[in-house]
Amino acid sequence: MTVTATRSILRLINSTLRTNHFVGLQSKCYASTQTTDLKEILRELIPKEQKRIAAFKAEHKDTVIGQVTLDMVYGGMRDIKGLVYETSLLDSNEGIRFRGKTIQECQAQLPKAKGGEEPLPEGLFWLLVTSQIPTQEQVDWVTQEWNNRADIPQHVVTMLNNFPAQLHPMSQLSAAVTVLNLGSKFAKAYSDNVPKSKYWEYAYEDSMDLIAKLPTIAAIIYRNLYRDGTAVGAIDSKKDWSWNFATMLGYDNKSFVDLLRLYLTIHSDHEGGNVSAHTSHLVGSALSDPYLSFAAAMNGLAGPLHGLANQEVLIWITKLVEKIGETPTDEQIKQYVLDTLKTSVVPGFGHAVLRKTDPRYTCQRDFALKHLPNDNMFKIVSQLFKVVPAILGDIAKIKNPWPNVDAHSGVLLRYYGMKEMNFYTVLFGVSRALGVLAQMIWSRALGFPLERPKSETTDSLMAIVAAKKKTGANVSDRTKA
């Protein structure tokens, strides 16, 4: 099968998914129950999904779903279909879909806080876990669960309060999450020889506990570094997850709270191949508990080619303002971009998978048009949106000249007073927990095995290619490990 033929098949598959003809959990074939207990709903869903996947594998286990080229192997495994990740799917033209729902659909259909305009992340988590749009009562149940589980052990607080001020916020987040593993219900259950069929229950408990605690941990880090160590205060049971988070950070502006709800929703998941999601999936496959798996994911998110990119965008725009002013012309913007391209790339533009404007960028732009249309930094972002794609589009090797999610988020946070760019990735990390932990629950429920792909050396690849040329036939792996 040729690469072109494979891509045609995959386009057909994506079209099928989009029109909801695909039978199964992804298309909500199971009737939505009105109970507010998320764990009980999972008890109903999991056996059905286990049976569906078992039948699918039994019938089609030998079906070829793609082709691997040498360029893919050396190119970061781009486009290799090599793992199952249920909670979201990234389409190169449409962008991310959360359990089949676009961001626009999530904004329209997910429950909102009273007086708020953006979806509650609690609702997005429910969708990721169940593939069902929750009711307001179900979302309220999640909010109360997280509020009730939010207490931080004293030894974690003590550790955070004793970190040196020079330690990056992401390093502090990773360390704190790792130490939370002391209370892991999954680790204890495993040591107690709990049956594999029960693993998901303890992964669920750890995941709910961790998500509940992350805003407080992040707020302690923020206040220790940027607010003279002032106290974060207590969780307010009348506030939702994002509102409590904003209050603990020290921001009570109503629009900022709504921005945070939007931010935590849209950064939650981006299918399973990105660094943070794949890391959590890989480490979790070793049956490391959700704390250790998520901590590993955060170490990946901290990299400049992943989560750190949002602060790099704002740094670049800040330097632009310093050089050509707060109200530059389009021509000045164009020249600054061309000068940048002589030595580096334009941060915030392009994506490994997407081939159009990132819908996560678009919804942030819509938020800015509504709440800060006259902000000079936003105006510059808008100019970049107009100028940069045309420039990058003339560079042959750039497949996607359009802005991604990182091109906008920093400017929004800065507008509301959060100018500490080193902290932006921590916000990203808190959000990403929703996606990777929802998937981890399902990974344990479906009994996904230890991830162990086959690697090759350059010499062994050369031997495979030589043998293929000599025989004119495909040469498979010679060994298994």
From TrEMBL:
**Which molecular function GO terms apply here?**
citrate synthase activity
Identify the InterPro entries for this entry.
Answer: Citrate_synth-like_lrg_a-sub, Citrate_synth-like_sm_a-sub, Citrate_synthase, Citrate_synthase_AS, Citrate_synthase_euk, Citrate_synthase_sf
Q: Where in the cell is it found?
A: Mitochondrion matrix
Instruction: List this protein's GO terms for biological process.
Output: carbohydrate metabolic process; citrate metabolic process; tricarboxylic acid cycle
Q: Which GO terms describe its cellular component?
A: mitochondrial matrix
Q: What is its main location?
A: mitochondrion
Give the pathway: Carbohydrate metabolism; tricarboxylic acid cycle; isocitrate from oxaloacetate: step 1/2
Instruction: List where the protein spans the membrane.
Output: none
Reactions it catalyzes = oxaloacetate + acetyl-CoA + H2O = citrate + CoA + H(+)
Instruction: Report any Pfam family annotated for this entry.
Output: Citrate_synt
Q: How does it assemble?
A: Homodimer.
Q: What is this protein called?
A: Citrate synthase
Give the source species. Rotaria sordida
